[in-house]
Design goal:
The protein is α/β, with parallel strands linked by helices. Helix content is 38%, strand content 13%.
Length: 335
């Protein structure tokens, strides 16, 4: 005769069942074709300005495996690259034991050196691609730590892979002059401070969340009350507020496609329907599309990235000889 479960055992079983259901709530099935997005920039014209090309990005890129209130991605860096992500929101932290990891409120187990290894391996295999490594926040925000992380970056990737403005040219003017043909196989490195490490001249300034820093090459305005609103309100009202800001700026512009304030995967799954529909509708809105550059998302997938990548066709950036290939690739992710 089977024993009846004790009250304690029954509670544990219920908790486990609820946890499994909760975790599965926002999961997205990924197509095997997703890795074909590893080389999507190969189909884009060399003369495309990098400040006008439409690029998929990931928010808080190094959070896979963290607790639900901290996690914003469920893929490691290699997988994010494979599904088409080319902008990374990089947030390194120095732990007491000397290890450098990614963080979002709390420290993760995801190591900065593993990220650099994935970037190096990816660019070696896909020299047609261009990456933006945006060191938005660093802990501690100190020159000695900057020297450590950028020393690691230069050693791993090699100076020839890192964009650096020539002598006598400002970083902003340099970035505004670049086309995709100039940057294939390379990375742009930005840091959220005006006090750049002198030892590493390739590091360029990016804005603070709500303020433009002088000389910034990358703009990523963030207004908390916008991104903590409901999904429908955010898409219908606040996205346009951000785009109006971009219309006044040069350089690389990052559109906040994510909601914040307690990130949960099921919350993003509900927001995704609204955000992705808005992105797809841009192909019929020439005026707004003109100001779209990088679109940053939570829980990047091949589908989300393909929706963003497809917009390059409507800007006229796909090579004539690659249109059929481009259309076929994007179609693999159609609903």
């Amino acid at each position: 005769m089977k024993k009846k479960p004790t009250i304690t055992a029954a509670i544990v079983m219920i908790v486990v069942a609820l946890a499994c259901a909760f975790t599965a709530c926002g999961k997205t099935q990924e197509s095997p074709a997703a890795e074909e997005l590893s080389y999507w920039m190969k189909t884009i014209r060399d003369d495309t300005p990098i400040t006008q090309m439409v690029i998929p990005g990931s928010h808080d890129s190094g959070t896979v495996g963290m607790v639900s209130v901290c996690e914003t991605q469920n893929k490691d860096f290699a997988a994010q690259l494979a599904v088409g992500t080319r902008y990374f929101d990089v947030r390194p932290r120095l732990k007491g034991n000397g290890e450098i990891v990614f963080y979002h409120m709390f420290s993760s187990d995801n190591r900065y050196e593993d990220f650099l290894a994935d970037v190096e391996e990816f660019l070696s295999a896909n020299p047609s691609e261009f990456l933006i490594l945006d060191h938005q926040h660093c802990d501690p925000a100190e020159e000695s730590f900057y020297n450590t992380i950028f020393g690691m970056l230069e050693e791993k990737l090699g100076a020839e892979r890192i964009l650096c403005a020539p002598a006598g040219v400002s970083d902003a003017d340099y970035i505004n002059s670049l086309t995709l043909g100039d940057v294939r196989g390379k990375v742009l490195v930005t840091l959220g401070t005006e006090d750049l490490p002198e030892q590493y001249p390739f590091v360029m300034t990016r804005d603070a969340d709500a303020q433009v820093r002088e000389g910034s090459v990358l703009h990523s305005p963030y207004i908390g009350k916008y991104n903590k609103s409901g999904s429908e309100e955010y898409v219908s009202e606040y996205l346009q507020e951000y785009i109006d800001m971009y219309a006044q700026l040069g350089g690389i512009c990052i559109l906040q496609g994510q909601l914040t304030g307690g990130i949960l995967e099921d919350k993003e799954a509900k927001h995704d329907a609204n955000m992705s529909a808005w992105i797809r509708a841009l192909k019929d809105d020439e005026e707004t599309l003109a100001h779209i550059n990088v679109i940053m998302r939570d829980y990047v997938t091949g589908k989300k990235c393909a929706d963003i990548i497809e917009l390059n066709k409507y800007k006229g950036f796909v090579k004539d000889e690659c249109v059929t290939e481009f259309d076929a690739l994007v179609a693999k992710f159609a609903e």
